[in-house]
């Protein structure tokens, strides 16, 4: 199958081409601003499926809306009809097509051209009305407000908000691309007038900026938002995608003494924190118990002796763990514990605690094992 993607160098186009390749579609032709009219016509005629993503959303004057959205679409349709083609087309339109502004009117014109093409030729057409799309490779000050907010937050640039309660309807680029690719791998009902990507995230300008600020501050606080699912997962990924290469890394505090080093890496609001420590040969760390706190230790390198003693019964237990085992050892409330480096090299241990360390209430009581 020969697939044609117009606007292939744009935000959605770049992502879609990657998704198509991952889905096993190798014959992907691209149309960008560099293509001539003859070149466009040649690629259109050779296509078996067209993703028509190209368009204008930030022109220098309003007349460019019609030229870049309605007229370009009509030219593609005319080329197909002239050559007796019935090539399926997926058009990216906008929820603003219902509005009377110049952009919305130009998108509505593109929709009408595609609908007429379907009626005349019987070709399958898919008109997607998209709200604001956000995700990696979106351009600040062009594709979406979210991209601008991400870029400005990362680079300490001002963000102007006229009304923090202004509503935002957003769809994530991965969901858009997956929906588009499904047009090639399934046979959907083509009778739908418009198609919509799900899920749609309903939020506000103020909430987005607040979350982005929290993402930025997490490098200092080490406290991460709940970035593992839903809208916050997608927004965090978008935020990180706007980091420049020289912003990929940052430093955290090292606490070093005669025993070794302790470094906190990440803290969560409801699932504790992650850190690591080292111990020099022969050094013992720990020697305390917790009432409620519990921990998981993973020896990354070296040989460690773990000792435990119940604080009331005196029952004891010990075990040896080496880095090659990838064995996790848990501490249990009411049992004092310590760790000794019994190897010949530096001991390196990863540590998870189920709560963030609170200096005012450390829940850590010294008790010799």
Explain this structure:
The longest helix has 20 residues, at 63-82. Helix 7 (205-221) packs across helix 8 (230-241). The chain is elongated, with a radius of gyration of 29 Å. The protein has helices spanning 11-22, 37-46, 63-82, 102-121, 145-154, 173-185, 205-221, 230-241; strands at 3-6, 28-31, 49-52, 89-94, 125-130, 132-134, 167-172, 201-204, 223-224, 254-256, 261-268, 273-279, 284-289, 295-301, 303-310, 316-322, 328-331, 335-341, 347-353, 365-366. The protein is built from 8 helices and 20 strands. It starts with a strand and ends with a strand. The chain is of the alpha/beta class. The model has no long low-confidence stretch (mean pLDDT 95). Helix 1 links the parallel strand 1 (3-6) and strand 2. The strands form 4 sheets. Strands 9, 10, 11, 12, 14, 17 and 19 form a 7-stranded mixed sheet that branches. Strands 2-1-3-4-5 form a 5-stranded parallel sheet, sandwiched between helices. Strands 16-15-18-13-20 form a 5-stranded antiparallel sheet, with no helix packed on it.
């Amino acid at each position: 199958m020969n697939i044609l993607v117009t606007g292939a160098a744009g935000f959605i186009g770049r992502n879609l081409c990657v998704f198509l390749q991952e889905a096993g579609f190798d014959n992907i032709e691209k149309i960008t601003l560099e293509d001539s009219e003859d070149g466009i016509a040649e690629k259109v005629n050779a296509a078996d499926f067209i993703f028509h993503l190209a368009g204008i959303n930030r022109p220098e004057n309003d007349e460019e809306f019609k030229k870049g959205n309605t007229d370009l679409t009509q030219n593609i349709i005319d080329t197909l009809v002239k050559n007796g083609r019935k090539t399926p087309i997926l058009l990216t339109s906008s929820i603003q097509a219902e509005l009377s502004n110049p952009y919305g009117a130009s998108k509505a014109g593109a929709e009408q051209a595609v609908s007429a093409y379907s009626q005349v030729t019987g070709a399958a057409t898919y008109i997607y009305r998209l709200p604001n799309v956000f995700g990696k490779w979106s351009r600040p000050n062009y594709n979406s407000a979210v991209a601008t907010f991400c870029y400005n937050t990362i680079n300490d640039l001002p963000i102007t908000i006229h009304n923090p309660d202004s509503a935002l309807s957003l769809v994530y680029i991965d969901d858009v691309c997956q929906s588009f690719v499904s047009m090639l791998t399934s046979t959907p009902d083509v009778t739908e007038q418009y198609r919509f990507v799900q899920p749609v995230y309903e939020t506000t300008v103020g909430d987005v900026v607040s979350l982005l600020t929290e993402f930025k501050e997490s490098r200092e606080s080490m406290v991460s938002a709940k970035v593992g699912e839903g809208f916050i997962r997608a927004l965090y990924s978008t935020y990180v995608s706007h980091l420049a290469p020289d912003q990929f890394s940052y430093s955290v505090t090292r606490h070093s003494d005669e025993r070794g080093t302790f470094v906190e890496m990440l803290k969560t609001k409801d699932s504790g924190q992650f850190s690591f420590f080292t111990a020099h040969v022969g050094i013992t760390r720990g020697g305390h118990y917790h009432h409620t706190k519990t921990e998981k230790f993973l020896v990354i390198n070296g040989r460690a002796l773990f000792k435990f003693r119940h604080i009331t019964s005196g029952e004891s237990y010990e075990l040896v763990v080496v880095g090659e085992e990838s064995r996790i050892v848990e501490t249990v409330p009411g049992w004092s514990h310590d760790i000794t480096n019994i190897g010949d090299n530096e001991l390196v241990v990863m540590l998870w605690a189920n709560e963030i360390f609170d200096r005012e209430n450390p829940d850590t009581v010294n008790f010799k094992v």
